Amino acid sequence: MLRAKLEEFVQKGAFRQKGGLCVALVVTDHARTLGLPLDPSKLMTKMDGQVLGLGIAAVQGILKRNQIDKVLAKEGGRTSRGSIQHMREYVQFLNYLQANSAADLDAIEAFWIGRVREFFAAKPFRISLDASRSFRQMVRDVIGDDSSTIVFQLPMRQRVEWEIS
Question: Is the pLDDT reported for residue 164 higher than 70?
Fold first, then answer.
């Protein structure tokens, strides 16, 4: 039931992009620390201009404890104008889950970590070429494998195989 509610929440809101993901991760972490229900007014900075604790350090700390080293957002969603509204919506959702005895924060964090992994997986693949290294070495670094055949599936069902010796 919890996963279905989280999926439904994502479909309704803007929690598919990095800003929303950052908000979800940090607010879930606040729920661990402060407990539920949360008061959205207590999750604002003193000047009410930003979500409390929302920044690269907090987001990267959560990602790191889940074995993710990539940077989700350089500002951690901190400078997004939508972050405050996202926080309010998400706090309301978490409080709803808590009122219905469905707020398993470990499972909720695992859900958002899964979404972060999907976000990274959907990003275009980039490689920087190093003229001092052979193409073979670079490909092996990318795939992390010493296999002798690399298969690429290209559009239009074309198949290309490279033998590496």
Answer: no
